[in-house]
Amino acid sequence: MQVDDAVTTAGGADRLIVLGPLELRLDDREALAAGVRASLTVREFQVLESLAERPDRVISRELIYARVWGGSMPHRDRAVDVHVRRLRAKLEQAAPSWKFIHTHFGIGYRLAPEESGGVA
Q1: More exposed terminus of the chain, fewer Cβ within 10 Å: N or C?
Q2: CA distance 14 to 36
Q3: Is there a domain that residue 120 lies in?
């Protein structure tokens, strides 16, 4: 699956980002993984949106923090990691055969849906 087939719409239509089996309905603040709604908090959705705006690219923890919480990330702050862990669990619960968020140790996170061979 290639993530560069990302579909986005804007203008008069609802804003939508589609990355493989992942669909983000920005105006409704709703995420669907393989057609199943993932129940996300506001912050979790904001983290996912930040990653989805630059699919298949590594986004630093500091940039995610700045976009979601505003300002500079405090030293040793784990808010981004905690939210990514929860977000990952919710997306993979909705679509067990997919892996959505990849960790790049010491750098950040990358959103690139890939089939993981999990139970469907």
Answers
A1: C
A2: 19
A3: no
Rounded to two decimals, the pTM is: 0.86
Give the C-alpha separation, 60 to 66, whole Å.
10
Structural domain including 15 reads 3-115
* pLDDT tens for each residue of 43-88: 999 999 999 999 999 999 999 999 999 999 998 899 999 999 999 9
| Residue 72, in any domain of the structure | yes
17 occurs within a structural domain: yes
Angle CA 40–8–102, to nearest 5: 50
Whether the CB-CB separation of 101 and 108 falls below 8 Å is answered with no
Q: Does a structural domain hold residue 111?
A: yes
